[in-house]
Specification:
Helix 7 packs parallel to helix 8 (about 270-280), helix 9 (about 310-320) runs antiparallel to helix 11 and helix 15 (about 485-495) packs antiparallel against helix 16. This protein is α+β, with helices and mostly antiparallel strands. The longest helix has 18 residues, at about 500-515. Helices cover about 25% and strands about 20% of the residues. The radius of gyration is 23 Å and the shape is globular. Strands 3, 10, 11, 12, 13, 14, 15, 16, 17, 18, 19 and 20 form a 12-stranded mixed beta sheet that branches. The protein has a 6-stranded mixed beta sheet with strand order 1-8-9-7-6-2. The chain has a two-stranded antiparallel sheet with strand order 4-5. One of its GO terms (cellular component) is periplasmic space. Pfam families: SBP_bac_5 (PF00496). Belongs to the bacterial solute-binding protein 5 family.
Length: about 550
């Protein structure tokens, strides 16, 4: 059973003495390469244009993919994802294994932070405590740390035993299959203990990591962040002198900027912008199957009608998701039937998307006592996201569809960063949202987005939702859904190391989610990038990227 309880044993977790490392493990890795990689630094300024500016540069202060694009250049993790793939490779750790409730990690010697200090086990311990331990002297506060803290590390780690400067044993609260992948997530980026102590929350504007690029400045007025190559980076690269992240809100304007040479790489492409890039002689369109989900979530804690399963199902029938995918997203996405896409373990091929059937929807609303309709607010972000490249147009389609069954929708559109704060505090009736996986594990969808993060006995008997003021509530569960059958299945899957058994459990979870409909499952989108002809070695990375340290500029 999972818990967000920050117990005394968890808070007083640090042990100075060494202990025996784990023996043969079910999941292990040894890096056979040298920690002293040859530097291959090149030159030039790489400009990366996106749809929205960052809100923070502290990986423990965000749930936004826009922030992560930048922080992934500044920080490293113990374990990394191979560029463009979901397999694990060495980062700040060179060896690791997982057996039962224990993970052992050997860290890389000689990796330095941007101030020249060496990265050791002490830095990871300080990183962990700052993110999860409210009794830690340098804990920045519940309002500051993101909701990633509990489900990435806090719920699972009971203690860390330091076995010298470069070795540690991490004791888990339970068997937890995704743990090594969690160590590769952006939220597990390793911070400097000294920076934690000296900079505090200033890390949101003045970050310092061990990554290939170091922070230079942030022009918030022009929405531009400048990074420079870190000459003492432990790994290969970087191959450019600078990286500049700039925000261009319009998809088509961003594409035109790439074509005209004002940017080297762009993302957040809708169908029209993708066509502009594809038809250009100066750039190319790259694509890869994404690992994401776009959805409309019902806030059951706020809207009484949404507590009725028939109402949620009726809205799923009333919204023409096929038309949204085919007409608005036009070839860059497929309809969704469940929380995970087909390239994730446990995808249930027997489930079909809800078909567009307004007559059936009306009958279900009648049967549920809502035949005369009701009104709700649909909150949406304005800026394009990979899983929803045209959010305003999609929202207008939802509004039009639901008018046909007597439901009035008031669209509340906001810039992305204020929107995330709005939804993470439960102020929405319903909202568009989406998820680009952090670790390619089904748990990263099912538990992160649809589990309330509390023990099952805290769910009031006879209901399948909880209030936003529930102690330990997972605010990424923007539907406030708390179905105990679903919780039981996903908790069991977390503790199962056999892949086939896990897959079967997640297929059950998909069936429950499809039937209970806490979301309108909308789409799984391709990952699209526009890349200038002078760019080499850029890979589309649905997870862990962008990997800009390996990019070169020619000409």
């Amino acid at each position: 059973m999972t818990s967000n309880d920050t117990s005394v044993s968890r808070r007083n977790l640090l042990k100075a003495a060494g202990g025996a490392a784990a023996s043969a493990s079910v999941a292990g890795y040894v890096d056979t390469g040298s920690a002293e990689d040859v530097q291959q630094q090149g030159g030039g300024t790489l400009t990366y244009a996106r749809g929205n500016d960052s809100g923070t540069l502290d990986p423990q202060n965000t749930t936004s993919g826009e922030d992560v694009k930048v922080t992934n250049q500044i920080y490293d993790r113990l374990i990394e994802f191979k560029p463009g793939e979901s397999s694990l490779v060495a980062g700040l750790a060179t060896e690791w294994n997982l057996e039962g409730q224990q993970a052992t990690v050997t860290m890389r010697e000689g990796a330095t932070f941007h101030d020249g200090s060496e990265c050791t086990v002490d830095d990871f311990i300080a990183t962990y405590r700052r993110f999860t331990d409210s009794n830690y002297e340098y804990y920045p506060g519940d309002e500051y740390v993101s909701s990633y803290g509990p489900f990435t590390l806090g719920n699972w780690v009971s203690g860390i035993e330091k076995n010298g400067d470069y070795q540690m044993t991490i004791q888990l609260e339970q068997r937890y299959a995704p743990f090594l992948r969690n160590l590769a997530m952006f939220a597990s980026s390793v911070l400097s203990e000294q920076a934690i102590q000296e900079r505090g929350t200033d890390l949101s504007r003045n970050p310092m990591g061990t990554g290939p690029f170091q922070f230079e400045n942030w022009d918030t007025g022009n929405q531009r962040i400048r990074l420079s190559a870190y000459g003492d980076y432990w790994g290969e690269g970087p191959n450019v002198d600078e990286v500049v992240f700039t925000a261009i809100g319009s998809n088509t304007t961003r594409a035109q900027t790439l074509v005209s040479g004002g940017a080297n790489v762009i993302d957040g492409l809708g169908s029209q912008a993708a066509q502009i890039v594809d038809n250009s002689r100066n750039a190319q369109l790259l694509e890869k199957q994404g690992i994401n989900i776009g959805y409309l979530a019902f806030n059951m804690a706020r809207v009484e009608a949404f507590r009725e399963k028939q109402v949620r199902q009726a809205i799923s029938y009333a919204i023409n998701t096929k038309a949204i995918v085919d007409t608005i997203f036009r070839g860059i996405a497929v309809q969704a039937s469940q929380p995970i896409p087909s390239n994730v373990l446990g995808y249930n091929e027997e489930l079909d998307p809800y078909p567009y059937d307004p007559e059936r929807a009306q009958q279900m609303l009648d049967d549920a006592g809502y035949g005369d309709g009701f009104t709700f607010e649909l909150a949406t972000f304005q800026n394009p996201r990979a899983y929803n490249p045209s959010p305003i147009q999609a929202a207008q389609t939802v509004k039009s569809n639901l008018e046909q069954v007597g439901i009035t929708v008031n669209i509340n559109q906001q810039p992305f960063n204020p929107f995330l704060n709005y939804t993470s505090t439960g102020k929405h009736d319903a909202c568009f949202l989406g998820w680009m996986t952090d670790n390619a594990d089904p748990d990263n969808f099912y538990y992160a987005l649809l589990h309330p993060g509390i023990p099952q006995d805290q769910v009031p008997q006879g209901q399948d939702w909880v209030g936003w003021d529930t102690d330990g509530f997972n605010t990424l569960d923007v539907a406030a859904w708390a179905n105990t059958e679903f919780m039981n299945v996903t908790e069991e899957a977390q503790q199962t190391y056999n892949q086939q058994e896990r897959a079967d459990l997640y297929k059950q979870a998909a069936q429950i989610a499809h039937e209970e409909a806490p979301w309108v499952f909308m789409d799984h989108a391709k990952e699209l990038r526009g890349v200038g002809n002078n760019v080499e070695n850029f890979v589309v990375a649905p997870i862990g990227g962008p990997f800009l340290k390996q990019v070169r500029l020619t000409g």
